[in-house]
């Protein structure tokens, strides 16, 4: 599901509280959930898009998907509208993305499939989750040096009764079959085979992606393209060799200062201690003793 975004009228604490509640099932670990929510708040003023179309002519165009799909208030429909307006005969799709909304990803996949241009995908850094099956819409897929591809089961979250959750389970299962068919269409094999690989969250280095059939070959990096590093904490099986951003620290409120103990408070505490230590004593008004500067021990 897309991550919550701050509303115009929300204060920081209001947004973080709502975000923590909405992501409780997707991010069970509280510290991880807090890191994601605070990162979302810090991004609220960003206006950049997760994709860019450049160098568009009647002959060719280049599309960069270089962030999480569905971020920044830019939707798949925005992407599809711009894509449909391209008259280029050849499109180079360059990808470095941790994925994003699965339904947006399917819409983008189908839009690329429908476009009359020849589409050639290059994974510059990471093609994970929905970004991995978007590349499968291309006529050719190349993996740049050091790049990675990851496939996994679609995720979703519902609120409601048992019937609502059962319906979402059914939808996710159907969506998983559809995505598996995208991989099988290029690499061969059947849907159950690819579902089994998706269920264990499979990560492939560049040559491994070629070997398994998800890509057609290798290519060197274009140094002018920026390759970002992402926070991949929402995934459960990230290999050590995949670079990722460190989750931002959890912002905790400053604790209230502990007041310095007063002589009266300390005296009262000491008086109580004396009574506890010698429970056989008759009732003793230690407050008067404190005022007088004496103790029970002196009796």
Structure, described:
The chain is built from ten helices and eight strands. Helix 1 packs across helix 2 (30-42), helix 6 packs across helix 7 (191-199) and helix 9 (263-277) crosses helix 10. The chain is elongated and about 95 Å long. By secondary structure, the protein is an alpha/beta fold. Helices cover 39% and strands 15% of the residues. It folds into two domains: 46-219, 2-enoyl-CoA Hydratase, Chain A, domain 1; 263-298, no CATH class. Strands 1, 2, 3, 4, 5, 6, 7 and 8 form an eight-stranded mixed β-sheet that branches. The chain has helices at residues 12-22, 30-42, 76-84, 102-114, 130-135, 162-187, 191-199, 206-212, 263-277, 286-292, and strands spanning 51-54, 60-65, 90-97, 118-128, 140-144, 148-151, 202-205, 217-219. The model has no long low-confidence stretch (mean pLDDT 83). The termini are far apart.
Helix and strand run: HHEEHEHEHEEHHEHEHH
Number of domains: 2
CATH class (first level) name of the largest domain: Alpha Beta
Q: Rg, please?
A: 29 Å
Summarize the structure.
This protein has 299 residues and is of the alpha/beta class.
What key attributes describe this structure?
about 300 residues, alpha/beta, 2-enoyl-CoA Hydratase, Chain A, domain 1, eight-stranded mixed beta sheet, 8 strands, elongated
How are the elements arranged and paired?
Layout lengths: L11 H11 L7 H13 L8 E4 L5 E6 L10 H9 L5 E8 L4 H13 L3 E11 L1 H6 L4 E5 L3 E4 L10 H26 L3 H9 L2 E4 H7 L4 E3 L43 H15 L8 H7 L7
Parallel strand pairs: 2-3, 3-4, 4-5, 4-6, 5-8
Antiparallel strand pairs: 1-2, 6-7
Helix pairs in contact: 1-2, 3-4, 6-7, 9-10
